[in-house]
TrEMBL record:
It comes from Palmaria palmata. GO terms for molecular function: structural constituent of ribosome. Residues 20-46 are annotated as: Disordered. HAMAP family: Ribosomal_bL35. This is Large ribosomal subunit protein bL35c. PANTHER family: 54S RIBOSOMAL PROTEIN BL35M, LARGE RIBOSOMAL SUBUNIT PROTEIN BL35M. It is found in: Plastid, Chloroplast.
Amino acid sequence: MPKLKTSSSISKRFKITRRKKMVRHKAHRSHLLEKKSPKRKHNLSKTVTVNSCDKKRLMLKINN
């Protein structure tokens, strides 16, 4: 049986830290930025850890 490929879209969107946490970027920061306040844009630029229930599902996709 051939080796299963990793989902490349998921591997680009999520990163795994040294402590095995999954990190992602927030949405709504790609366009239409004029109407958003600087504070809001700054908060959107931060990274967020993925919820544990989503992490289990995503790890199956990455490890394939």
